[in-house]
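Students often ask why we bother encoding 3D structure as a string. The short answer is that it lets us treat folding as translation between two languages. Here is a chain of 423 residues written in the first language.
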Amino acid sequence: MTVLQDLEKRGLIHQTTDNEGLEKHLKENQVTLYCGFDPTADSLHIGHLLPVYMLKRFQKAGHRPIALVGGGTGMIGDPSGRSSERSLNEDNVVKGYSEKIKQQLANLLDFDNGENAAVARNNHDWLASMTVIDFLRDAGKHFGINYMLAKESVSARIEQGISFTEFSYMILQSLDFLKLYEQENCTLQIGGSDQWGNITAGMELIRRSRENLEEETKVFGLTVPLITKADGTKFGKTAGGAIWLDLEKTTPYEFYQFWFNADDRDVIKFIQYFTFLEQKEVDSLIDAVENKPEERLAQKRLAEEVTRVVHGQEAVDQAQKISASLFSGDLKSLSKQEIEQGFKDVPTHHLNKAEMALIDLLVDTKISSSKRQAREDIGNGAIYINGERNQDLKHVVNNEDRIEDTFTIIRRGKKKYYLISYK
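And here it is in the second language, the structure alphabet:
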């Protein structure tokens, strides 16, 4: 099976400029391809993972991927898929974002793979030194206004309004394709479905700028589909916001849980998109979803694979340990770091006192609404300290109830957790 056939089977191809020609090109050559990542934040999020995995799939097939960090285009902002103008970041901010994203890409792609090792480039290197005259003479002259207005990224914004800055974005991205074609012999650009107009504009610039040269120009474009979830919610978003690849912004446990909580209707699609599992195993997971959905075997496998690729095996082990402890109630086995991950979003109360009567603690932290309610909660067996039920009305929470001398975890009822931290 060729790489394109594999991508087609996985549902990963939305559009190609010339499917038959690209198939032949990939068969006859080691192809250099690229995907751009604009530094609009200090981290990539899981919405970026699909094009990253596409680069990895081409690399595994023997081709050479370029991860292009948009240090130049990131100063402008892509209007694609947006209904309003982006806020422009300062140069030093974009540079900082670019370095962080470059490091994340280096962790995800194989930069030590011999002849087809991945490389990282930054379009700030050629865009920042370009003068306005160079831009207008060498690039702008190849783009007709009607051609640009017809692009969806522009036409969708005409009524709401679009600045000349964002209007020009497609020319800047087209220059990326041209520069990589000239410097790296890059002949394929990939991207999300919203990048189709920018990709085809880049191909047009390459052809037009070289039409006087006696050479055959073969360049191609390919886009991946927009990821949709069966329940209608946006992929990569939770109540707490985006799922980031930076473990300081989204903990490995939260990252793992996002994939583990995948809907049965989505999980196989996500496995096809975000893993390299053999088809035999995928078929067994399809069977598990259909016949033993309560075991969530497919979700567990998906969460393991994606978390391992992004954060490493240690993060997988840690996330699974936290999950098992929460399920079993064995919270004392958790470390301070694991508690910080697993209880990041639960109500947290800080105490200065070395010890405190349990009833008073429940009231002061508003776990129970009054002393009378606290007594009822304790007496009814609704209060758990570090996973163990406590029905002692005279219990005093002290050093022995602390995990690593830092946290006490109190649970009221079946699911309401509260974290007590000590300064």
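Translate back mentally: The mean pLDDT is 92. Keep this in mind for the problem set.
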